[in-house]
Model the fold of this input.
Amino acid sequence: MKPNVCILRSDGTNCDNELFYAFEKAGGKSEFVHVNELRNKEKTLKNFQILALPGGFSYGDDLASGKVLAVELMSFFKEDLHKFIDQKGYVLGVCNGFQTLIRTGLLPFNTPGKMHATLTNNDSGHFECRWIKIKAEKSKASYFNELDFIMDASVNHGEGKLYADEATLKKIEDEDLVAFRYVDTLGKPTQHYPENPNGAMNAIAGISDKTGRIFGLMPHPEKFVDITQHPNWRREHFTTPHGLPFFEKIVAFVKAS
Amino acid sequence: MIQTIRVQTTKGPDLTGLGLLHDIQSQLHIDGVTKIRTAKVYRVEGLNDTDARILTEQAFCETINQDYAINSTLFTDAKHIVEIAYKPGVMNPEVQSILKSASDLGFSLAAADSSREYAFYGKVTREQVTQIIHKLNLFNAITEHVVLEEPKTLKITGKIGKVKTLPLRALSDSELTTLSKDTLFLTLEEMRVIQRYFQKIKRDPTDCELETLAQTWSEHCVHKTFRANLTIDGKKKRPLIKRIKDTAKGFDSFIVSAFEDNSGVIDFYDGYGICGKVETHNSPSAIEPYGGAMTGSGGVFRDVLGTGQGAKVLISTDVFCFAPPDLPKKDIPPGCLPPDYMLKKVVAGVRDYGNRVGIPTNNGSLHFHPDFRAKPTVAVGAYGILEKKKAQKGKVKPSDLILTLGGRTGRDGIHGATFSSGEMTDRTITVSGSAVQIGNAIEEKRVIDAVMELREKRYIRAITDCGAGGYSSAIGEMGKDTGAKVHLEKVPLKYTGLAPWEIFLSESQERMVIAVDPKHKKEVLDICKLYNVEATVIGEFTNTHRLHVFYGKETVCDLAMTFLHDGLPQRHMIGKTASNAASAASDAAAAKKIEKLPQPKDYESIWKKIMSHGNVCSKEPIVRLYDHTVQGSNALHPFGGVALDAPNDGAIVKPFLDKPYGLATTHGLNPVLNQIDPYWGSIWALTEAVANYVAIGGSLKDAALIDNFVWPFPDEASLADLDKAVDACTDMAKLLSMPFVSGKDSLSSTYRFKDKSVLKIPPVLLISVFGRIADVTKTMSSDFKQAGSTIVLVGKSDVKNLGGTTYFSIRNSQANSIPRVDIKTLPKTLAAVTKGIQAGNILAVHDISEGGIASALAEMCFGAGFGATVDVKKIAMTRPDFTLFNETAGTFLIEVANEKTAKKLFRNVPYAIIGTTKQSSTIEVFHGKKQLADARINTLKTAWQKPMKAYFS
Done:
C-alpha cells in the first residue's frame, strides 16, 4: 500500500508541486489539500499517513515566517494533529513548513502551542538561493541513518537560522534530535558562510522530535529528485539524485510502522 | 482604542540597525551615532489591554529571542526615535495577515497596521537624524511617511465623491490643452475629436467618460506611434506594428496566437502551448522603485495568467538599465532618484514579489550607462503554459456575468496608464505620486491558485488582468464587441471615499476580471472562497454595444463602444534622421584616432578592468536574492561550474517534472550600440538574444521572439531611429525564419529640464527569445568540462569595429562604427552549433558579448576551475587587442574533445581552433609566439565579482 501524503497548501505555499512529485516518485500517493478544506471538513487528516508542509511564504511570512499558518494550525487543529501523530502519522516540514512546525511548538519537543526554539533571520541579513551540502547523522530520525553521503541540496530562505537558548540546544543535542547538519566539502559540520547559509547554531539543518515522527529541515531535498534538477548535472554525472533516497526512507519508515 | 505594540529582537544582531549604522558612518560621515536599534510596530484597533497582551504573545512576539512593549517605548534611553509607516491608504500587505491571525485566535479587530521604528543612540541631533533618513532614503515619500503623532484611528473613511460634468463643449483650444496636461496626456487634436463627439450627442462628458477615453486612447494602451502611418526621411512607410506583426505570417502550425492576447502563445508538446510576455515598468520604477518593480512583476504574471482561459506562470525574467551606482549626486537631474538607491530597491521589489508568488526568477541582466540617470529601464518578463484548446482569447456572450477577483479597489495607481505615456520632469514625482503603489504578492498567489482551478473546471469564458486603466480598460476591452453594464457600487473597496470615476479607473493591483456564464456563478464563488479570494459580480455583458457604468441609479459613463475603441484618429507621423553634417569627416578622423590607440602594455590589467566593468561583472549577489529553484523546474540554472558561480547564457525549465520537455528563454540588448547606430545596434541585440538561445542548446525553429522598444519620446529624430530598429527586427526575423509573437513599446524615455532642454535616455531594444526543447538532456552549459579539450571560436568576428564596446569604454575611445554581425554566415553558424549540441559532440558553449572573447574565456574557466591557452592570431592577423576584446554577437567559444571534432562540426562555417583547456590556475593568451597575458583565474574572478558585492552583500 502506498502511504497517502497530504500536501498541505495555504495562501503563499509555493513548493507544493515539487514536494508532491518527490513523494510520488518515492512511492507515496500525494494529494493537495488546502488548509481551508480541513477547516470546512471537506477533507480530513484521518485519510493520510503523511502530512507534508511544503516551502513557500505562507500568508506572506507576515509577522514571522510560517507564523500565521502556525497560529491557524494551533487554533483549529491542535487535537487533530495530536491524534494524527499519536496514531503513527508522520509530519514533514520543509523550509517554510519547518518554520511553521517550529512556531507551532511541534518541533523540537512536540509541545503544541509552546515554542522552544526559533528560526530567525539569516546572518547574511537577506534571502539566499544557493546549493549547499548537508549530511545525515545518527539521530532519533533513525530511518535517515543510512544516508551516509554528502547531500547536495538547494536552500531558499531568509529566516533559516536555528536559534535556541543554551539549555534547549543542549537538550536537542543530548536527545539526538539533530538529523542533518550543514557541512563543508569534507563532510564536517560548519559555521562558515555560505556553506552554512544562515548561521544556524551547531550547523543544524534539520531536526526531529524524539519519536522521529515529526521532522523538519530548511534545505529542499524535494528539488533534487531528478538528476537534471542539479545545477551541475552536465559535469558531475550523478547516478542518484540526492534528494530521492530522503523521501524513499520516509516512505519506507511510514510503511513499516 | 488603538493598542501600539513594539517588538524588538534581543538575541542576535540587529542586522537592519547595523547596516544603517554602517551607511551613516561610511556614506554620511556622521560619527556621533554609536548604535541603532530597530523595532517592529503593530497597531491594532478595538482590543482591550488583556487581549492585546494575548495577541502579542501568540502572534507578534517570540520571547525566545524577542521582547515587546505595549503602549510604551522599548528604547527608553535612545536619543531619538523615528517611526516610518506606509501612508494611510497605501496598501500594507501585512495588515491582512494581522487581521487573520487575530481572527483565528478569536479576536475581532476594527483595523490594524504595522510599521518600523529606528532608535538612534549617541551624540546626534534631531537635524542629523532628519538628514540621515532623507539622505539614506530610509523611506520613499510617495508611499511612506514619518509618523509624527499617534494616530487616533486606523480606519479610513470618506464621503463618496460626486459625479462631475465638465463643460468640454465650450472650451477653447488652449483650455483643452490645459485640461489635458499632467492628467490626460492627450494631444490637442485628440481632445478636439472628443469635443466634437460630445457636441454631436449634445451633452458634456462626465469626469468618468473623459478619464475612460484618456485611458483607452493613451499611448500606453493603444500605442499610437506604432499604429501611425509614417513618412521617414521623405519616404512613406507602413505602421511599425504592421511590419512586426507580418513576421508571424506563415507560422500557422507553430503559432497558437500572436499579438491577440495578453501574451503570445506558441506550440509546445502533448497538446500544450507556451506563452511569453515582457513588460516595461519604467515610469513607476523611476519614482518609487520598490513598488514599481513589484507591480511590474505582478502585472506581467497576470498577463500570462490572463492568457487564453488562464495560463500557469513558469518563469520570470528581469532586465534593468541604470546609471552607474557611483554616479556623482550632482549629476542626478532634479526630481530623480540616485541610481544606487534605485538599483537596490528595484532588486528588492523583484525579490519580494517573485519569491513570494513562487515564480522562479532565473534569467536577466543589468546594464549601466550614465544617461539612464533620469529614468531607468525596468523590464520584467514571464512565461507560462496552458492547454492549446484553452489558449484562444475567450469571447464574452451577452448576459455573461462580470466578476472581479482578488484585491480591493483603492485610490492607488490612478492615472498609471496616462502618466506612463508622458515625459519625466521635476514635477513628475509630485503630480503623479498616486500612480504608484505597493504590490501584495500573496494576494496575487491566491488569485493564481483560484484561477488555475477555475480554468481546470472550465468556468472561465474570458479573462483579463486589471492592469493599466483598471476596470475601464479590462471591461471596456472585453465588452468591445458586445457592450457592458457595470455597477460600481458593488465593487469592494479598501476604504470609502472614492469618486465613481476613481473606482472605474483605479489600477489597484492583484485584480482579475472574468466573464462567467450565469449558471456557474455559485461554483465560481465557492472556488474563490476556498482560496480566500474575494470575488464579486459587478455587472454583466450586454448586446447594447455601449459601455454603460452606474453608481447606484446614477449614470457615470455611457459611451458607444465604437467611439471608445475606433474613434481615435490614426496618426500620421514624420521621422527624419538627425543629420550628422560633419559625419564623413569626423568618421575619418575617428578612424585615424583609433589606429593610433596604443596597444596595451599590460593586458592583464586591462582584462581585469573589463571583468569589473558594470556591463560585464558578475551579477551573482543579485541572482542569489531571487528564488530561482522554486517549482523544482530548473534544468539550466543561472550559475554553474565547480564553484557554482559561472554564468550560463539562458534559462531552461521543465514545465512537467515527469517529462523531458523544456521551455528555454534568453534575451539580448545593448543600449550603447543602439544609441550609436539604431539599425546595427538592433541587429546586434537580436543576434545576441538568438546566440544565447543557441548556446544553451535551443533550436531556433522551435522558438519565437518578443520585442520591447523603450525609446525616447518620438520626435522626428527618435522616430527615424525607431523605424530603423524595427527594420532591423523584421530583417532579422526574415533571415532567421523566426516570428515575433508579442511585443510592447514604451516611448517616454525623455527627461525635460525646467529650461526645456531635453535629456534623451538611451534607446533600449530588448529582444527576448522563448521556445520549446524536446529533451533537456541535450542542452548545454558554459563551463569548460575537462582539461585538454580543444577551444574553438565559431562564427565570423568583426575585429575592426569596436565602437561602443567595453574595451573602448575603458580606454575612453569613441567610434561610430559598432561591431557588425556577419549576416551572411550567421544562419549557418547558428545551425552548426545547434547540430553539434544535439549530436552530443560539444562540451561547453558560451556566446561572445560584452567583454568580448576575453570575458567569455574567463567565465568558462571560472566554471571549470582550471585554465586555458589560446592564440588570438588564429582568429585574425590584425591587432591582438581588437581581437581579444571584440564583441561580435553571433560568435561563440566552444569546447570540443579534439581538433578532429571541431573540423568536422564546423567545416561549413567560419571557425578558428584557438587553443586548449589545461590543468592550471592561469589563462595564457598568445599572439602567435608572443605571450600577451598569463592571468591568474582567481585574480580575474575577484575583479569580476567585486562590483556587485559592494552593493549586495
Remarks:
- The mean pLDDT of chain A is 97.
- The domain at 4-256 of chain A is CATH 3.40.50.880 (Rossmann fold).
- The first helix of chain A runs from residue 16 to 25.
